[in-house]
Write a structure and sequence with these properties.
By secondary structure, the protein is of the alpha/beta class. Strands 4-3-8-7-5-6 form a six-stranded parallel β-sheet, with helices on both faces. The chain starts with 5 loop residues before the first strand and ends in a 6-residue tail after the last helix. It has helices at residues 21-31, 42-50, 52-60, 69-77, 88-100, 119-130, 146-159, 172-180, 195-200, 208-212, 216-223, 228-231, 233-247; strands at residues 6-10, 13-17, 35-40, 63-66, 109-114, 135-140, 163-167, 188-191. Helix 2 (42-50) crosses helix 3 (52-60) and helix 2 crosses helix 13 (233-247).
Length: 253
């Protein structure tokens, strides 16, 4: 991380705090620094406690942003940091808007991978209508055979997109990025979860007032009741967070 930015430990997982995440990513893009972006929430943090491979992938990521309310409240209440929640979907949107405003001779190549059949393509169409100048060079569904995935890898290696959004859900998208980022070593790889569903119109995002009050998870539970078991990670995270804070230092860099 550059000067003036810090990483703080949330249950042993680094979270990077800075004033301008999209600006930092543009800097990485311009200098050809390959970057893996993780959008961290309480559920992912608890998964990382049980899955050491996922934990290591997150720790190796160049940028981990505070996506979930639990992570933000931990940083505010236990580490006294003035942190604003930055959902991954908003980071992706701001980055796309910033890319369109660049005054460069060549356009940044963008790729969408993930979601049900047709969802990534519809999400790309949505953004192409919003910002016609964007150069979205390809899309691929997250549902495919091993042969089709091999073809996807070959396509990425040939196209060399510079920004790659991966919407496979946690932890699959994080593990997939870590395994395949060598294909486009100078690219920005961002795990965007269900963002393609929102952009394609398949699902709707929570009203702003819920997000502003750290209750977006409640709307998601309303839309997807089957997630209730996964939501049990939230109280478990709260308990572990307080215990961890009493026994460990917060700032790690």
């Amino acid at each position: 991380m550059s000067k003036g930015n810090q990483a703080f430990s949330v249950l042993g997982i680094p979270v990077h705090v800075m004033a301008d995440y999209p600006g930092w990513l543009l800097e990485c893009l311009h200098t050809g620094r390959g970057t893996h972006v993780v959008t961290l929430n309480a559920e992912m943090t608890m998964q990382a406690e049980r899955n050491q491979l996922l934990a290591q992938v997150i720790k190796n990521a160049e940028l981990v942003i505070p996506d979930g309310a639990g992570v933000v409240l931990y940083l505010r209440w236990l580490l006294w940091q003035k942190v604003q929640r930055f959902p991954g979907i908003e980071l992706a949107e701001k980055l796309l808007q910033a890319l369109a405003q660049q005054k460069t001779k060549t356009k940044t190549k963008i790729f969408f991978y993930g979601g049900a059949p047709g969802v990534a393509a519809n999400a790309a169409d949505f953004w192409q209508q919003q910002i016609p100048d964007l150069s979205i060079v390809g899309t691929h569904s997250g549902y495919h055979s091993l042969e089709e995935e091999a073809q996807l890898r070959q396509t990425l290696a040939q196209l060399q997109p510079q920004v790659i959004f991966v919407g496979l859900g946690v932890p699959r998208q994080e593990l997939w990025i870590a395994e395949n980022r060598h294909l486009c070593p100078q690219a920005i790889w961002i795990g965007v979860g269900g963002s393609f569903d929102i952009w394609s119109g398949t699902k709707t995002r929570a009203p702003a007032w819920l997000g502003n009050n750290n209750l977006e998870w409640l709307y998601r539970l309303y839309q997807e009741p089957w997630r209730w078991r996964r939501m049990l990670a939230l109280p478990a995270f709260a308990v572990k967070a307080f215990v961890y804070r009493l026994t460990a230092r917060g700032a790690i860099s």
